[in-house]
Amino acid sequence: MFAYIGKRLLLAIPTLLIISIFVFSLQKLLPGDPILALAGEERDPQLLEFLREKYRFNDPVVYQYFYWIGAVLRGDFGISLRTNQPVLELILEKLPVTLQLATMAMFFALIIGIPAGIIAAVKKNTWIDYLANLVALTGLSIPNFWLGIMLILLVSVNLGWLPASGYESLFVDPVRSLKTMIMPAFVLGNALAATLMRHTRSSMLTVLQADYIRTARAKGLSSQEVILSHSFRNALLPIVTLTALLFGELLAGAVLTEQIFTIPGFGKLIVDAVFNRDYAVVQGVVLCTALGFILMNLVADVLYVLLNPRMRAAL
């Protein structure tokens, strides 16, 4: 198992390297000059030259990349041109917010999507199945920003149950932190639940038609045991992969949702950085997001091996 994990980690190195090259190169193609924005309205030539030397903008692009990637390998992601803070400090400040939002959103997605998918598969071609598919299609079709605004109007403005926006750290005030995160997490989890429901239903339908399921029923096992112990366990493999990918997507930051609910996570950070041409922040956030995707894929691969005896035997 450890050898398998080691191989997967080795494969992640060239992936991250390619991503870093793309991110750095594409940043250079963006219009505008961050040094002009940093220098202010006067744009004194001496100040511009000083800033270009300070941030190595006068060096060839190839040298800039190697200087940057070398610093990243030492744990230095650069300095934000806008706030003059270390990029790593900004990332570590926003990471707990994004992790909390992603975890709560995935919780909503799992407790809604997987049970609905199982029930829809078991009750295939009944009104329950049609209703579950209709709800899933609705969840996929409704834009997150519209659902977020409607929830604010209903739950916060009209009923006054939850805060309309803002964020409180989980370590400062856990109760208020959960209250501020429930609505944005539900907005994100709702769309993911629809995706999980459809994949769970499809996977369960395939397993329910297998010969060993008919054999289990013929042996007199209860429907609950057949569905949960035999069918769902074997239908888990594609669901695990999808869940890992969806969680990695959440780690990238939900831009619109974070903007609507004023949550200071990765989404808001990268949008502000793009608008301010804060290259170092954009590069740092994208690299961390890519690392998150790779780690979640690694988790999915490990779970695949743990859940599939044939894969364990092949290692």
Query: What string, H for helix and E for strand, traces the elements in order?
Result: HHHHHHHHHHHHHH
Could you name the CATH class of the domain at 93-273? Answer: Mainly Alpha
Beta-strand percentage range:
under 5%
Instruction: Count helical runs.
Output: 14
CATH homologous superfamily classification of the domain at 93-273: MetI-like
Intertermini distance:
7 Å
C-alpha Rg (nearest Å): 24 Å
Return the CATH architecture of the domain at 93-273: Orthogonal Bundle
Structural category: mainly alpha
Q: Stretches where pLDDT falls below 50 for ≥5 residues?
A: none
Biggest beta sheet summary: none
Determine the mean pLDDT: 81
CATH topology of the domain at 93-273: MetI-like fold
Annotation, overall tally of beta strands: 0
**Shape, principal axes of CA atoms:** globular
Classify the helix fraction into a percent range. Answer: over 70%
What does this structure look like?
This protein has 315 residues and is mainly alpha-helical. The chain has a domain at 93-273: MetI-like fold. The protein is 78% helix and 0% strand. The protein has helices spanning 2-29, 34-39, 45-54, 61-73, 87-122, 127-141, 144-158, 174-208, 211-218, 223-251, 255-260, 266-275, 279-307, 309-314. The longest helix is centred in the first third of the chain and has 36 residues, at 87-122. The model has no long low-confidence stretch (mean pLDDT 81).
